[in-house]
Design goal:
about 425 residues, about 75% helix
């Protein structure tokens, strides 16, 4: 009996492997044909040979005129990289298909067929093949851990177990859209000042390397001592002209070195994390963002039926902060030994009293997920308001910085001319 079972399993594996091998031999063909009315039609079809494409077209009443293999890109796969938005759109589309009663495999075919990005299409086709081979959806998604992280796969697994996969997928789509909206707000707040300051640095470098040396030639003709501020700019200009490559190497090397140190050293990650959270306004935005992401992620996983301890495992990496990541891990350890969630949250010292009290009410009333969603909505709104306020505050501050840097250089270059005019007058 055992031998028969083993043989059967081996046969299933052989058939699955055979079907995957045959899929890898398939090719995409571009065809042009005429329908029964003589209208010109064109499209794409994935199959093994051009003959099969022609046979399928004739079956559909189309007279094939041209069938050619779709040209492959010269350098790797064509198409843009797979973005979080692509995953959220896919999740919503598949949820809609399944809610309408469309079988999962057919849903994958429909969603994949509507993709403009070949990378997304190939990924969905590969996942569909895994499912056809007998894998559960959460197992098939595991082939793409970057696009479908542990949180996503755990939610899908819970949805499959409870038989509410379509609802869970729709919840995931909403969750991803909210999280990406928060990230977008924070990036928008950081991008503007970073871009303006970068332009100020570039303009200053151009003045020091190309403009001030020209003024220096003019200053030599005056035969008089230069003002101290102008002399400082001239000395700085000479250094930049002679050693600009040293400064550039130091700048690039510092960025690369700090990046590598951050990735390899947990102590450095914690140091940077603590320093960033202490920055006025910016630190508060990051705190509120971390709490919003913590509350929404935990609410989504708990609502999907994932046990609280397992849910906290998935939440740890979703806060976007090393400090809050460690705090969630401590919360998980406390909950695992029997502590209430509100008590475990209070012990970290990182969450305000309002969060602790709302979690406590949620635990006592049996509506923890609803309370977590309310916390998330509150802090998401706080992030929106803080980002708008930060943008309004930064504009005059940045203009002052640019005025001091660039304006100071211009004044320094013209000081000798003003001094000469005063002497002549």
């Amino acid at each position: 009996m055992a031998t028969t079972t083993a043989t059967a399993k081996a046969g299933v594996k052989h058939n699955v492997g055979k079907s995957r091998a045959s899929l890898s031999q398939m090719e995409t063909f571009v065809w042009v044909g005429l329908d029964k009315r003589g209208q010109r039609m064109k499209g794409e079809m994935t199959t093994k040979t051009a003959s099969l494409v022609k046979a399928e077209l004739r079956r559909q009443g189309i007279n094939p005129q041209s069938v050619k293999a779709k040209p492959k890109p010269l350098f790797g796969k064509a198409g843009k990289s797979i973005k979080p938005r692509d995953i959220s759109v896919f999740s919503r589309q598949l949820a809609t298909m399944m809610a309408a009663g469309v079988p999962m495999v057919q849903g994958f075919e429909i969603v994949a067929g509507g993709q403009n990005n070949p990378r997304v299409k190939d990924m969905l086709v590969d996942i569909k093949t895994e499912i056809e081979g007998g894998s559960a959806l959460n197992e098939a998604l595991g082939k793409y851990p970057v696009q479908f992280d542990e949180l996503y796969r755990n939610l899908v697994k819970a949805g499959e177990s409870a038989g509410v996969l379509d609802t869970v997928l729709d919840t995931i789509a909403n969750y991803q859209e909210n999280i990406e909206a928060i990230k977008g707000k924070i990036k928008k707040a950081m991008f503007y000042p970073a871009m303006v300051l970068s332009v100020a640095v570039i303009v200053s470098a151009i003045l020091l390397i190309f403009v001030i040396p020209q003024f220096e030639e003019v200053f030599k003709g005056f035969g008089a001592d230069l003002p101290a501020f102008t002399q400082m700019l001239v000395s700085l200009s000479r250094f930049m002209v002679s050693y600009w490559w040293v400064i550039l190497l130091w700048f690039v090397g510092s960025i690369v070195g700090l990046t590598m140190l951050y990735r390899r050293s947990e102590k450095f990650q914690h140091l940077v994390g603590r320093m960033v959270l202490k920055i006025p306004i910016v630190g508060e935005i990051l705190r509120q963002s971390a709490m919003a992401r913590f509350a929404r992620t935990l609410g989504v996983t708990f609502k999907a039926g994932v046990p609280l301890v397992e849910a906290l495992d998935s939440v740890a990496g979703a806060t976007g902060s090393v400090i809050y990541n460690e705090a969630v891990k401590r919360i998980r350890e406390d909950v695992a030994v029997g502590h209430q969630l509100q008590l475990a949250i209070r012990q970290t010292g990182l969450f305000p009293n309002m969060v602790v009290q709302m979690v406590s009410i949620g635990e006592e009333s049996g509506a923890l997920d609803a309370m977590l969603f309310k916390i998330a909505e509150f802090y998401e709104q706080e992030v929106n308001n803080a980002v708008d306020a930060l943008a309004s505050l930064l504009e005059p501050f940045i203009m002052i910085i640019i005025g001091v840097i660039v304006g100071g250089m211009v004044i320094g270059m013209y000081l000798p001319i003003f001094k000469l005019g005063a002497v002549v007058g």
